[in-house]
Design the sequence.
């Protein structure tokens, strides 16, 4: 669905007050008007002092942020909306430190905000499955260390990366951090990120053999100097991913690697819709449920 473009000034005009943000969230939660989550009554009154809706039938009270991405937040919705805008419009990805300065919060709060936004990004991308002709490979993320490079290198985190290719151009992509490149992790990736029965090209690494169980598998032994010819698109994506991680975030810890991969994937898959990204991301966040694993912010 195509979304309209929106500038910084237009964003401020539309979402510059707490009430304006609440109205947008309420419209997403209750598109046909308030519905009590306890008794399904459509009658309610808004208690301004507590910022909650009270059902006129059962007297149940519910805040506008309950059961949403913003559940139990101590932060104003205005700051949340600005965080979403800055995250969407910063092409290289915004760091927690820069976001903290922009919206006037502490670094830990900004980091938690970005963590939740990235979960919404990942959730939206999880809807899609790669199809048609797909290049599939593994890579390793981590700082430079002496010794072996690539597969088997110490102190690095393996990732699986797949990208559609259409008319010599990249389509959608998917990426996942794993503990080890094995047949089990490869099967899991294939099941969650690709439609069955596609054409998938890889090198001849034995751990990637499960591809043939669900897809038309094209593979061959490829010397290092020729891999960019056999798997050109996926290697361009991997190169761009490493630039993204090192350029904006100067590397990331393995603990949070997947959420940064999710952000890169979300941006890459919408690279032709950049002017629409703020409203696309806002909709993804507004429609998302509460994130229980993350600390409140």
Sequence:
């Amino acid at each position: 669905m195509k979304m309209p473009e929106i500038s910084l000034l237009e964003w401020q005009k539309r979402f510059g007050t707490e009430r304006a943000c609440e109205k947008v969230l309420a419209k997403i939660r209750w598109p046909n008007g308030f519905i009590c989550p306890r008794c399904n009554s459509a009658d309610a009154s808004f208690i301004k002092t507590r910022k909650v809706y009270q059902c006129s039938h059962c007297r149940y009270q519910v805040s506008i942020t309950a059961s949403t991405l913003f559940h139990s937040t101590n932060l104003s919705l205005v700051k949340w909306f600005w965080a979403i805008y800055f995250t969407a419009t910063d092409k290289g990805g915004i760091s927690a430190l820069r976001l903290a300065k922009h919206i006037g919060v502490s670094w830990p709060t900004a980091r938690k905000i970005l963590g939740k936004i990235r979960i919404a990004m990942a959730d939206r991308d999880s809807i899609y499955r790669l199809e048609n002709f797909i290049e599939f490979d593994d890579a390793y993320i981590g700082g430079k260390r002496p010794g072996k490079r690539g597969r088997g290198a110490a102190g690095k985190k393996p990732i699986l990366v797949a990208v559609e290719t259409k008319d010599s151009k990249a389509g959608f992509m998917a990426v996942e951090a794993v503990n080890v490149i094995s047949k089990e992790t490869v099967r899991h990736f294939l099941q969650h990120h690709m439609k069955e029965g596609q054409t998938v090209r890889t090198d001849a690494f034995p751990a990637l053999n499960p591809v043939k169980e669900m897809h038309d598998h094209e593979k061959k032994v490829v010397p290092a100097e020729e891999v960019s010819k056999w798997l050109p698109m996926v290697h361009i994506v991997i190169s761009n991913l490493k630039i993204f991680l090192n350029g904006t975030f100067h590397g990331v810890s393995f603990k949070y690697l997947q959420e940064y991969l999710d952000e890169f994937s979300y941006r890459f898959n919408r690279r032709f819709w950049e002017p629409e990204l703020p409203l696309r991301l806002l909709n993804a966040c507004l429609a998302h449920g509460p994130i229980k694993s993350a600390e409140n912010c």
